[in-house]
Amino acid sequence: NASQSAEPSSCKVGILQLLQIVTLLHHGWSLHPFDPKYPLFVKVVDSVRGSPASNVPVKLYKESAEGSWELLRGLPELTTKEQFVAGLYKLEFDTASYWKSLGLNPFHHHADVVFTANDAGNRHYKIVVVLSPFSYSTTAVVSEPVE
């Protein structure tokens, strides 16, 4: 049956976007170069253009004991090994300013990635965010503890 063997066009687009992301990751681009003294490594991909989205403003927050978010800093060096203690963190990506700079009117104004850091600065967290004007997705690779 021909209808069963045909791939939906959305599947083809998704596969192409995935291939673009894999290619970009393979070439090692990021918002800042990987440096072992920084335990947090962030990459942002513009899935519309299939290229790095290197000028997306990013802020890092840590949850306080009272449950509120405390701003730590922005890129390029989000945090050092000594500052990156175990706890709950939030990366806030200002996606609206990025898309508006390209002449697009996005649905999301921010893409937030909330995650738990364990073992303080003894692990490296590599976080990838894939953006489009109407969606975003994220993935992470967390290294084994390093002494």
TrEMBL record:
GO terms for cellular component: extracellular space. Belongs to the transthyretin family. GO terms for biological process: purine nucleobase metabolic process. GO terms for molecular function: hormone activity; thyroid hormone binding. The lineage of its organism: Eukaryota, Metazoa, Chordata, Craniata, Vertebrata. InterPro entries: Transthyretin/HIU_hydrolase, Transthyretin/HIU_hydrolase_d, Transthyretin/HIU_hydrolase_sf. Residues 35-147 form the Transthyretin/hydroxyisourate hydrolase domain. Keywords: Hormone, Secreted, Sulfation, Thyroid hormone, Transport. This is Transthyretin. It is found in: Secreted. SMART domains: TR_THY. Thyroid hormone-binding protein. Probably transports thyroxine from the bloodstream to the brain. Homotetramer.
